[in-house]
Each structure stands twice: as C-alpha cells, then as structure tokens.
C-alpha cells in the first residue's frame, strides 16, 4: 500500500506560507514541493473551504494563511484533507471464512483502532504555531533566514 504524504506536504506548505508577508502562487509552492501546481490548487481549495487559507486571483495574487496558527491543530488539517488513511497496514481479507483469520482480524482491528485513536489525539494536541516554533528554533540554530525558493531550489 502506498504511503499518503498529503498531511506532511500540506503542513510543509502552510509553514512556508506563514513565513511570507504576501501571497505565494501555486507555481512557487509546486516547485517547493516538487509537484504540479494543479495538485497544490486542489489541496489548497479544500483548506480554503475550511477557512485556513485564502486565495486572490490576478497579478500579485496567490495563497495566504487565513487562520490563527495557535488555534489550528494538525488534526484540523488532517480533517480538512478528508481524513486520509492513517495506517498503511490492514487485514489480509475483511470477511474471512476461516475462524483463525477471524480471530487475527479481531485482534488487529482493535490494535489498529487503538493506534488511530492515539495518533488522532496527538494530532489534536499539536498546533501549527508549535510547528512554526520548531522551525524557528532550527532557523536560529542554523543562523539563517527563511527563503522559500532558496530552500527548495
């Protein structure tokens, strides 16, 4: 099963955007994420619908943060993405006829549910502001300044 990295990618983009004074285009964000601008626009549209970002069209337009980073959790962003699958493992079959496989599935289903509940709770405890603070600690330690395009050039 392929890993879904949308949450990580969106958080990455949002933190870059939070460092900028003005709008940033889908093209610039796409270059930073090594993806297509259409992918950025599709993901950002979902975040816009939830009020986390806004977009402006035309010359000088682009995407900007529209929320208070201290009030938005990783869980909020996860939910805005449509709650993608958290675990890349699962049962071999969902409705087995074998009693042994039914016992295995029951045990694994409970373990998966417990793991997902724990992960979702943790995502609900971490704000975008906390991620930003972690970035700033690293930036100060490196003695640098933020430059979206230079970071990913």
UniProtKB/TrEMBL annotation:
The cross-references to InterPro entries, in alphabetical order and at most eight, read:
Tscrpt_reg_Rrf2, WH-like_DNA-bd_sf, WH_DNA-bd_sf
Pfam families assigned to the protein according to its UniProt record, in alphabetical order: Rrf2
Q: Which domain of life is it from?
A: Bacteria
Protein name in UniProt: Rrf2 family transcriptional regulator
Give the classification, highest ranks: Bacteria, Pseudomonadati, Pseudomonadota, Alphaproteobacteria, Hyphomicrobiales
